[in-house]
Design a protein that fits this description.
heterodimer; A: 269 residues; mainly alpha; MetI-like fold; 81% helix; B: 268 residues; alpha/beta; Rossmann fold; 2 domains; 6-stranded mixed sheet; 4-stranded antiparallel sheet; 9 helices; 34% helix
Chain lengths: 269, 268
């Protein structure tokens, strides 16, 4: 929804107002900093952390864990999703495991993963991959199976092989589902690596929150939360950007595409 | 059981399609549904055959059998003398909806059969441009299906069905989803294209007027189970204009179809 410049400045004003009220309340009622820090002290903590490059190192660790976990989890999820969607046999034998795993809260596995893979970065990558895995696998399966019968019949009428139907129809047809899965997987991977860091780590934003909690540095924790939500937003828009380029033909993106086509009329030819 | 007929009797040398005592049953012999019973007809080379019948008369089932998408229960269908027992590369099909892939451009969609059958891309590209010009879509090669109107999409589907130069063109109510005016225009257009390319066409429709307007011959199917109710020649000179629909002769053919369908309980 586009509300124009007026709407945008109103939005900024609202955020500023909330921060001001928050600040005023904390000061007026003298709320202790270990319960609710004033926004000003959160920003001070953020500034100190960034200036001393302390935060940057930890951000680097968490981001690389998240990206590696995302890549690992997505690759496995895609491969297994394809296998399940294409082979009834694979589906039949794997299905009980899939259901069982899906029902289990994956973060509950984090302590075990630390035991198996140690305190280093590997355990966080594994935990991120595990959490990111399921949404993408399910979406891959559903997407590959969503090809309309008419389209399958068209391919069959051309005497297309099973593989040609997969490459030329099912896979491109599944892309909107797969990208929706990837967007979720990216955010889930971030959750997975933070949870891994909570349980046991030598570095990373999750470990930083944990240690700040011990020293009752609540303003510091707030500043990390702020960074995490920014990170989540950034990682998500990364996937969304790739999606926009790949899925220019998808109906759910068509409003935008039609808009740009109208703007650059004639350029299409 | 298949009776092997002597070659001479099996099919006239010029018959592209020969359907012999064809039946199709869905489900088991005891309680299944008989969709087609004892269908018998042939289509000589370069003929335009219209098949008309009400919904549920099994005409789409017949088309699927001819396209090799469904096996017949009894009898057989021959294409240029060889039985159709699976999808074949020398058939082009136009379905009820255009069935275009939104991730492929117009040119990409048209070249789909060439990609599947690994035909020379350069030669096919040249053919595609020629055919797109023939249907009035030159300049639209790099558009995407969702940027085209319904009529234009169906023309793309027609070009796609013709790109690999099939021996037979099957059309399953291709203009059924279009509005009446676009439909008339598409019929005139199809006749022009057919007269220029002279393919053997089996055209399925539930519109009596469309069947008579386009067909060299009209095969009327009656429902439950689908049977051949009538098969007659349309003696109207080509090219036929839309005005031909107002002539007494045209009306006579349409009445003849209605008569057969009424007798067969096809029209409620």
């Amino acid at each position: 929804m586009n509300m124009g410049l007026r709407g945008f400045s109103l939005r900024l004003l609202l955020i500023a107002a909330v921060l001001l009220v928050w600040e005023a309340l904390v000061r007026t009622f003298d709320v202790p900093a270990f319960i609710l820090p004033a926004p000003s002290s959160v920003f001070v903590a953020l500034y100190r952390g960034m200036a001393s490059s302390l935060y940057l190192d930890h951000i680097g660790v968490t981001v690389s864990e998240t990206l590696m976990g995302f890549a690992l989890g997505s690759a496995l999820a895609f491969a297994l999703g394809v296998a399940v969607a294409l082979s009834r046999k694979v589906e039949y034998y794997l299905y009980p495991f899939i259901v069982m795993f899906q029902a289990m809260p994956k973060v509950a596995l984090a302590p075990l993963i630390i035991v198996w893979f140690g305190l280093g970065i590997t355990s966080k990558v594994v935990s991120a991959a595990l959490v990111a895995f399921f949404p993408l696998m399910v979406n891959t399966i559903v997407g590959l199976r969503s090809a309309e019968e008419d389209r399958i019949n068209l391919m069959r009428s051309l005497a297309a092989s099973r593989w040609q139907i997969f490459w030329m129809l099912q896979l491109p047809n599944a892309m909107p589902y797969i990208f929706a899965g990837l967007e979720i997987a990216m955010i889930f991977a971030l959750i997975g690596s933070i949870v891994g860091e909570f349980v046991g780590a030598q570095s990373g934003l999750g470990m930083l929150i944990q240690s700040m909690n011990f020293t009752m540095d609540v303003a510091g924790q707030f500043s990390i939360l702020l960074i995490l939500s920014m990170l989540g937003l950034l990682l998500n828009s990364l996937v969304a950007e790739v999606r926009r380029r790949v899925l220019f033909w998808d109906p759910s993106q068509k409003i935008e595409a039609a808009g740009s086509a109208a703007a650059g009329k004639g350029g299409v030819q | 059981m298949r009776v092997v007929a002597p070659a001479a009797e099996r099919a006239a040398a010029t018959d592209v399609i020969a359907v012999r005592r064809l039946s199709k049953r869905y489900g088991r012999a005891a309680d299944g549904i008989l969709a087609l019973e004892d269908i018998d007809f042939s289509v000589p080379d370069r003929e335009f055959l219209s098949i008309v019948g009400p919904s549920g008369c099994g005409k789409s089932t017949l088309l699927k059998i001819l396209a090799g998408l469904l096996p017949a229960t009894e009898g057989e269908a021959l294409l240029n003398g060889t039985p159709i027992d699976g999808p074949r590369r020398d058939i082009g099909v136009v379905f009820q909806s255009p069935v275009l892939f939104p991730w492929r451009s117009v040119l990409g969609n048209v070249l789909l059969p060439a990609d599947v059958q690994r035909l020379g891309r350069e030669e096919m590209r040249a053919r595609a441009h020629g055919l797109l010009k023939l249907v009035g879509l030159d300049g639209f090669e790099h558009r995407y299906p969702w940027q085209l109107s319904g009529g234009m999409q169906q023309r793309v589907a027609l070009v796609r069905a013709l790109i690999h130069d099939p021996a037979l063109l099957l059309m399953d109510e291709p203009f059924g989803a279009l509005d009446a005016m676009t439909r008339d225009a598409m019929n005139v257009e199809l006749q022009r294209i057919w007269m220029e390319r002279r393919k053997t066409v089996v055209f399925i429709t539930h519109s009596t007027a469309e069947a008579v307007f386009l067909g060299d011959r009209v095969l009327v199917m009656t429902p439950r189970p689908g049977k051949v109710g009538d098969l007659f020649q349309v003696e109207l000179p080509r090219p036929r204009s839309l005005d031909v629909m107002n002539t007494e002769k045209f009306g006579g053919y349409v009445r003849r179809i209605r008569g057969v369908l009424n007798a067969g309980g096809g029209i409620e």
